[in-house]
Amino acid sequence: AAAFILILGIAGAGLSTIFPIVLIAPWLIADYTGKPRNIHSPQSKMLIIFGMLFAFGSEFLKQQPPALMVFSQAFQACILPAVAIPILILINRQNLMGIHKAGSREKIGIWAVILFSFITTYFAIVELFM
Known about the structure:
mainly alpha
């Protein structure tokens, strides 16, 4: 019973890791281009298939599963700057935001997130190769 619970937990961790990774690229591209989020579009399907192939293709690497799990978590830390920087760019565009353009508090908050994301990305990459 304990082995089943362990396997179930590992499978759950894997699924909770893969869904954000395969959805982040189509959503970022849709947000940046101003198009509605449509995961059924050909572009989104191709990005999702690529993400799934990359994720499941890692099974054929000569790595132990715990090492792959650590790598996937480190990779997620690297995604945060890719999300925070476009947000900063988009909320400062007058033609996009209109009267809802970011104020000083929002800008300071997002800069803090970007700084934090660079620090966590640095530590994730450094620790991965140590």
